[in-house]
């Protein structure tokens, strides 16, 4: 930590050690919000991070922020040292809270033993056990109080336990303090478990790589690889880096990174990812990303950030707890003071009831219920290649009523095959059409463009001419000059705009489109030179994926830029509603229309290349595509495995998570309400209340942890 007042640009994320429950989060948040240069704070015990933004025109004062956090008893860790996923995850008995559990448990056991061996000692052993367990709690209550926040769980505990000692209920106090420590430790365990299930991903990347220098492999640290270097990967090895294959071919098991269970054949020129397994061939791979930028590192980072961003339901509970605590203290005061004044009840009796009330009012179970479940849901998703950027997205996914999907690259494999190349001019040949079209497509990234250039290269080798002044006509095609001719290659629907169309050409186009093919027509001036037909097959799991959506009660609709006839053919095969010939902006328009008609929330799934407007318009934009930058960075969620069924999986996971959260909240609130009432009425005493609270905390923690074992096979996708 530096002592100078450095300034940091907003927003900033700090790594903070020692927070392990919702109580800690709120303490840090309320202390930091008080600083004038901090506008918004969000602390996460799950990821061990604090995210801050400065109000407009101000900058965050890093030194003051650090000292504030440190004063609360947590440690800011130097970010440059902490790498994502590499955080400490000590076993519970090695954590401060775990040690407290052991120590106060031992003292408690000793106190009971002494009580039977030397009854004459009285309650002193229990007092000692209470005090030892209470010290850290009182300390934390005091720190929060100094920061201006009197309403903490620790304050509640301190008052209740000291009060219990005062009315000579030392055994109760000792047990309460012990159980509180157990509850706190459980929260820490749940958070660490969710964290571990993600950070474990980082261990998939091997620590060493076989760097190739002058053709000779040499062992180096994988973390030291830089883009441009070449490495050798033997069969059975894990890939040490993101890269592209320079020579060799092999099947690659990508399941560790994207949950895709079927190995993929990969050959020269194809991208490979760190952490995946090379199954059967020797590969020479050129490094394309350094270790801290590779796909798996970014996935871990995204999930950690996602876990740090609170779900709306978690924010609601935070606010709830904020008003709840003062209310409880108020009610406890009434319970203590009013009955002795208006009835014959003894002060000791009313105070005992009030203290019991305070003890059970501690909203521990409630506070951990949501973050633990949401963190677990996000982790489970990431391990199956379903990346969701935050609890808000996770929550929203389950509510989707309608999902719009692109055709090309989303419902289809996005690797169309050229089926026909035809000349439509009397003096031309099909070879000319292919040659000129391929030239136009040289720089284009559209799936059709890639298919046409690849096909041309196979057919005619490297004899493809150079294009000049090439420009993409978004959603239509490409234009440019080749061999001195001004050419355009477009979807037939724009034919009229550029040239005359004859009945003959028209008929040919209709025939090919009716076979479900996409067409590109080559035009020069007024003349139609020829056409290329391409066919893209639906993804192998498209039908199953759409049926799974239907079973979840979500309506799927295909929105495509491709020609209406071939869109209709594919839609028919997949059994969904569809609309074709839409420009990217039209797709966004449809989404907005549906929202206005109350058909939302809407999800939009695309390959992330030309459908940014629609992805942005939808409540949840889902990008399809393994490891592409666009997919990871632009959307709310991404399917790292290229599977349509991933959409239904995400929705099912979201619903399971929200069910888990609701069960947890109901459990926590139910126990609380029941025993608050029975304690206030004097039906149950402190013992029952404490057991109930610990019981609720344990149940809620177990329930959230259970979600980590979520299985996707029950959605049939
Ligand atoms: N580079 C290109 N070469 C040939 N045709 C193109 C090219 N770019 C676009 N097109 C034509 O424009 C149409 C619309 O393109 P757009 O990118 O909007 O949709 P798409 O990706 O093909 O389909 P979807 O909307 O289902 O993903 C394409 O179907 C194609 O006919
Ligand atoms: Zn805490």
From TrEMBL:
EC number: 7.2.2.12
One GO cellular component term noted in the UniProt record for this chain: plasma membrane
Recorded GO MF terms: ATP binding; ATP hydrolysis activity; cadmium ion transmembrane transporter activity; metal ion binding; P-type zinc transporter activity
Catalytic activity: Zn(2+)(in) + ATP + H2O = Zn(2+)(out) + ADP + phosphate + H(+)
Membrane-topology annotation of the record: Multi-pass membrane protein
All copies of domain HMA, residue ranges: 10-77
EC main group: translocase
Family: Belongs to the cation transport ATPase (P-type) (TC 3.A.3) family. Type IB subfamily.
PANTHER family linked to this entry: CADMIUM/ZINC-TRANSPORTING ATPASE HMA2-RELATED, CADMIUM_ZINC-TRANSPORTING ATPASE HMA4-RELATED
SUPFAM superfamilies: Calcium ATPase, transduction domain A, Calcium ATPase, transmembrane domain M, HAD-like, HMA, heavy metal-associated domain, Metal cation-transporting ATPase, ATP-binding domain N
Protein's name in the database: P-type Zn(2+) transporter
Pfam family, one: HMA
Organism taxonomic ancestry: Bacteria, Pseudomonadati, Pseudomonadota, Gammaproteobacteria, Oceanospirillales
Transmembrane feature ranges: 100-118, 320-342, 354-380, 665-688
Keywords assigned by UniProt, alphabetized: ATP-binding, Cell membrane, Hydrolase, Membrane, Metal-binding, Nucleotide-binding, Phosphoprotein, Translocase, Transmembrane, Transmembrane helix
Annotated organism of origin: Vreelandella sulfidaeris
Record has Cytoplasm as a keyword: no
Subcellular localization(s) per the UniProt record: Cell membrane
InterPro entries: ATPase_P-typ_cyto_dom_N, ATPase_P-typ_P_site, ATPase_P-typ_TM_dom_sf, ATPase_P-typ_transduc_dom_A_sf, ATPase_P-type_domA, Cation_Transport_ATPase_IB, HAD-like_sf, HAD_sf
Entry-linked Gene3D superfamilies: 3.30.70.100, Calcium-transporting ATPase, cytoplasmic domain N (3.40.1110.10), Calcium-transporting ATPase, cytoplasmic transduction domain A (2.70.150.10), HAD superfamily/HAD-like (3.40.50.1000)
This protein's record includes keyword Cell membrane: yes
